[in-house]
Amino acid sequence: MPNTPAYIGRFAPTPSGQLHFGSLLAALASYLDARQAGGQWLVRIEDLDLPRNLPGAADQILQTLDTYGLHWDATVLWQSQRTDYYQQLIDQLLAAGQAFYCDCSRRELQVHAGIYPGTCRQRQLSAAADRAIRVQVDDHPLSFIDRLQGLFTQRLQTEVGDFIIRRRDGIIAYQLAVVADDIAQQVSDVVRGADLLDSTPRQLWLYQLLGARPPRHLHIPLAMRRDGEKLSKRLTSTPLAAEQAPATLFRALQVLAQEPPAELARADINELLGWATVHWQPERLPALQQLPDLSE
Description:
Blueprint: E1 8-11, H1 21-36, E2 40-45, H2 57-67, E3 77-78, H3 83-95, E4 99-102, H4 106-110, E5 132-135, E6 141-146, E7 150-155, H5 156-159, E8 163-166, H6 174-184, E9 189-193, H7 200-209, E10 216-220, E11 222-223, H8 245-255, H9 269-279, E12 290-291
């Protein structure tokens, strides 16, 4: 049986649109971190939220990654094909008394500033089509050290509350699915955008409940538009162009503070990625959650 690599990283896009420059920064940082460590780099399509999926977007994402030289190891994992596995974990949490059914509405939660007050914890509601499932948390400080952002601490009960792991419409929630898949794929390192920094304690809580060791984290600053919004599919940020791949990769390395030499501006994709893999230094990035005034 082959040994499991010491480093396994992943890039996990949602197919709600095509990849844009902000997506590329996260994919490239994750790829370089894995390749420099001599590890595996996986791609996962997080397509559970079916109403948000754009037809053809997943295939376009995979094609773009390939065009930009970001070639993944192993078979692409599709979350929409793994709902039975997620439900098994949810049933496990329910049976252990660590999760419960909830019929609270969004309007009720608005009174508590969106922080769930534990209303249904002791109600022992039964399963029903229109009921969410929440995982129960406590108020002990939960901390981790991000490789770039440093120490981050959150008290889940007072800052978040018991959080949803299966929505009222039956869709498995992001927090549960991402942890389940990272455990199953033995992911050792997660490199992603800093907009997910405050989700990490919820994921660490699930790792704890499921008896698994969490990965290391590196949350890179977000690319922002001039209007203060992050580059995103929701805001229809400009998709990555195949014919501009070398120039766009060079710009991405600059934005990631890797300081590529000027002569690489005329290099091809293989030369760019080869240089970047050898010279990758994530500590050069500023310990910020946003990169100021970056526009397309």
